[in-house]
Design a protein that fits this description.
This protein has 699 residues and is an alpha+beta fold. 45% of the residues lie in helices and 22% in strands. It is built from 19 helices and 23 strands. The strands form five sheets. It has a six-stranded mixed β-sheet. A five-stranded antiparallel β-sheet has the order 2-1-5-4-3, sandwiched between helices. Strands 7-6-10-9-8 form a five-stranded antiparallel β-sheet. The chain is elongated, with a radius of gyration of 53 Å.
């Protein structure tokens, strides 16, 4: 028998090296396991083909399962059923490609609650790039997901509020948001009608009508349960157990809640910005419970959003009521409103203003469009208004006419207030009233007054004639009688000279009596001596224009002034001088009554003349006079007007001449006539103060 060959040294060395390598590998695996176990987050190690090789202690603690139970996780309940398919697809694709993968999924905790995790799997490779195993790290992101969900829900709810969604829709979405975020609860918003002190259902989407109907209309009182107490005390009320808590034994909500399987109720007041309670937000649960801090934060969030939604809805409802009242008031009073931004030429009209102008409500309002409705004779007024409004933020008012498509005429009165916005841009807010009926009534009343005045003048003339006839008739009759008697006495044989003499004396007496009557009548119609005083002709002119502004505006006359500064005072009768100015104003207005192709402008100018005199001129743009008529207009009873009496200018010239002055008329280079009067001023007397050398005003 041959002896066994001895093992070579080289073979022994190989065995030893293999043994040491195995020991080192076991040591590295042990170290790897220790490292994995020391990681505080859940970590799993799987093979290159996907089998679970190792799980650290946090994994076992979270899931509450053994290693053996978790090796088949892909077919069990650790992953939420809604997420399982997606997780498997992502994981399998990563195993095939050998690339790191990430996925978010919900995992079931030992107590049955699912929480969100961020799962990241990355391969461990050797020096040749071969995958030895996969390391999977699970990071709890439940708080982040909850915050994201709450933020998204809040954003969605605020968008609904901002887009003016119906309040019921907003409150329903709010309740659904809380129910989705905090499972096992039912939510309701109860609005408070403080006028009737009752609760009204705002939204209770997940409870049946058998619960909601009895609650709607409950009085706001402690007997209403937690919501009633919360509304009255303005504090949150937590009823952890409606059945056992003695505070709610007499409340009307207890039997109703228990009949529907609800045990706890948390009620929180919904506040307005001014501290008023708008309603309450209630959370119901089927078990005895108190809110967690997370739920309290959620309640604070949704009650704030609910307050915004409710206040906005109340404001919009009030605004709609105000707009409806305003629209009805505008319709009844025939007043429309507008806004006009000068810089951008943006004009906004109310519906009533569209109706007044009879424009399409969809039409864009422009100055050009407005001009198509303005009466051709009033376009100059419109242009004047635009120029004045564009120059400064002044308040103004105008009256003008519209010529409608059916050729009817409307009279409008406009008033506007000018201001500047935060950007310094000029804006106007105003109102336009249709005063056609009033204007027609005024014209009818004016006509009636004119006719009445004419009748009064006729009656006065008749009374005057009767008075003159009565006063003169007696002495004239006496004269005739006495003359006849005197003749008979002288014709007698012999003549009765003494009787004739006495009769002649009576005739002389009656003649003097008649002369006295005429003298008294002349005194009655003769101007008294002027009451002299110092008169500021500029001020007197302004007063006449101011008093006549309404009359001038009614005939669309634009009065303008160019009054000299430092104008010396004059001595005279202020009332008589203003009577002359008023007469010139009316004559100028009447002269332009038929003018339609140019503005009806009436200029008043004052100036100092040489020789210590002042002049006032009134220039119109009327039809003017023929040259031969310039002197005749001052004659008694000469007139160019159908209803004129021809004494106005005659009296005016008499007044000026009594003031040691003169009144005359000149034809303009253009249309119209200028009437001027010149009177002496006070030598070295006080003058009218002014800041400018010349004043340019218009009204």
């Amino acid at each position: 028998m041959e002896p066994r060959p001895e093992r070579t040294a080289s073979g022994d060395d190989l065995t030893a090296r293999l043994k040491r390598a195995e020991e080192a590998l076991r040591a590295r695996e042990l170290d790897f396991q220790l490292i994995v176990d020391s990681i505080p987050a859940p970590v799993a190690v799987i093979s290159p083909t996907g089998e679970v090789e190792a799980l650290n202690q946090p994994v076992l603690d979270y899931f509450g399962k053994s290693f053996a139970e978790l090796t088949g996780w892909a077919n069990s309940d650790p992953v939420h059923p809604d997420d399982l398919r997606h997780v498997n697809e992502v994981r399998q694709e990563a195993l095939e490609r050998g690339e790191t993968y990430e996925v978010e999924s919900r995992h079931r905790r030992a107590d049955g609650v699912y929480r969100w995790f961020h799962v990241r799997g990355f391969p461990l490779k050797d020096t040749d790039g071969r995958i030895l195993r996969w390391c999977v790290l699970l990071t709890d992101i439940e708080d982040r997901k909850r915050a994201e969900a709450q933020l998204a829900g809040e954003k969605r709810l605020l968008e609904m509020v901002a887009s003016s969604c119906p309040l019921t829709d907003v409150l329903t979405a709010l309740c659904k948001f809380v129910e989705d975020t905090s499972p096992d609860c039912y939510c309701g918003v109860y609005l408070i009608d403080w006028s009737g002190l009752k609760f009204r259902i705002g939204a209770v989407p997940s409870l049946p009508a058998t619960f909601n109907d009895p609650v709607d209309g409950l009085p706001v009182s402690p007997q209403a349960g937690p919501c009633g107490v919360a509304a009255l005390t303005k504090t949150q009320v937590i009823a952890t157990d409606l059945e056992s808590d003695p505070l709610w034994q007499a409340s009307s909500i207890k039997p109703l809640a228990l009949a529907h399987g609800l045990r706890s109720q948390w009620s929180t007041p919904i506040y307005a910005r001014d501290g008023r309670v708008l309603g309450t937000f209630a959370i119901f649960q089927r078990k005895s419970a108190s809110p967690t801090q997370i739920q309290q934060d959620l309640i604070a969030q949704v009650t704030h959003i609910a307050s915004i939604a409710i206040e906005r809805a109340l404001s919009e409802a009030a605004l709609k009521r105000s707009e409806a009242f305003l629209a009805e008031a505008e319709h009844l009073t025939r007043i429309g409103s507008f806004a006009w931004r000068i810089a951008k030429n943006e004009i906004t009209w109310s519906n009533q203003l569209y109706r007044i102008f009879e424009f399409d409500p969809q039409a864009t309002v422009t100055l050009e469009l407005i001009g198509t409705r303005v009466h051709p004779e009033d376009l100059a007024l419109l242009q004047d208004m635009i120029e004045r409004a564009s120059s400064a933020a002044n308040d103004f008012q105008y009256e003008h006419r519209l010529l409608m498509p059916d050729h009817s005429i409307k009279y409008l009165h406009m008033i506007a207030h000018g201001t500047r916005n935060e950007d310094g841009e000029l804006e106007y807010i105003g109102a336009v009233q249709d005063v056609t009926n009033r204007r027609l009534s005024e014209e009818a009343l004016g006509k009636a007054r004119s006719e009445l005045a004419h009748v009064a003048r006729v009656m006065s003339l008749g009374a005057l004639t009767a008075s003159i006839a009565h006063e003169v008739n007696q002495p004239l009759s006496g004269i005739i009688t006495n003359a006849s008697t005197c003749m008979r006495m002288l014709d007698a044989e012999p003549p009765n000279v003494d009787g004739a003499r006495e009769t002649a004396k009576r005739t002389i007496r009656d003649g003097r009596r008649a002369a006295d009557v005429i003298t008294r009548l002349r005194a009655l119609f003769t101007n008294k001596d002027a009451a002299t005083e110092l008169v500021d002709l500029n001020e007197a002119t302004r007063e006449v224009i101011a008093l006549s502004r309404t009359e001038a505006s009614s005939v669309r006359v634009i009065t303008r002034t160019e009054l000299a500064a430092a104008l010396p005072l004059v001595t005279g009768d202020r009332v008589q001088l203003q009577q002359v100015i008023l007469n010139l104003l009316r004559n100028g207005s009447d002269a332009m009554s038929s003018v339609a192709d140019r503005p009806r402008e009436l200029w008043f100018r004052t100036e100092v003349e040489e020789g210590g005199r002042v002049r006032l001129s009134v220039q119109d743009a009327g039809i003017g006079f023929e040259p031969q008529s310039l002197d005749r207009v001052f004659q008694t009873f000469y007139t160019t007007k159908d209803d004129g009496m021809g004494i106005g200018l005659y009296v005016s010239r008499s007044i000026i001449e009594n003031h040691r002055g003169r009144l005359w008329a000149t034809r303009n280079d253009g249309p119209g006539v200028t009437f001027s009067f010149s009177i002496p001023c006070v030598v070295d007397g006080p003058a009218t103060p002014s800041l400018d050398d010349r004043q340019h005003n218009e009204s």
